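User: I'm new to structure prediction. If I give you an amino acid sequence, what do you actually give back? Let's try with this one:
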Amino acid sequence: MNTAAASTTTGPAGRRDQRGPGAARPRTGAAPGRAPVRRPLPPHLVFAERLLAVLSGERPVHWMLGQTVGEAYDQLIRLAPATPLRARDGARPVLRRCGGHPLRPGVVEAFASVTAGEQVRAMAFRLEQGADRKWRCAAVELGGERTPA
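Assistant: Good question. You get back a string of structure tokens that encode the predicted 3D arrangement of the chain. For your 149 residues, that looks like this:
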């Protein structure tokens, strides 16, 4: 009897992994058979993406209705029609950098820079956490004129 034909392994000699080719490998830090725990994104990053979507014209202003407090919604109504974060050459705007600094518990001052084609714009915003533990945007400002990158 041919011993090569009787073998049931298809991998290299000494292979201990019994999964076949193309099988997914478990992610580092995840228990076998369990999906890794996903950490929520920081609120300033979530809101930077949301504000970018509205101020570039990808989403309507009313999309932010329950996510704003105080004057922030009025600020968005004034800013959004001009789509200030949309690139003149039609390139999709991208969040380049984003950071946040807690002022006190439940209040974060944040900033972001947005690249759209050759343009780079600055955005500042304030987030406040309500009694329901949800974050809402309380103020939005955009930096100066459009300038080349």
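You can read the tokens as a compact description of the fold. Here is one thing that stands out. Residues 43 and 121 are 20 Å apart (CA to CA).
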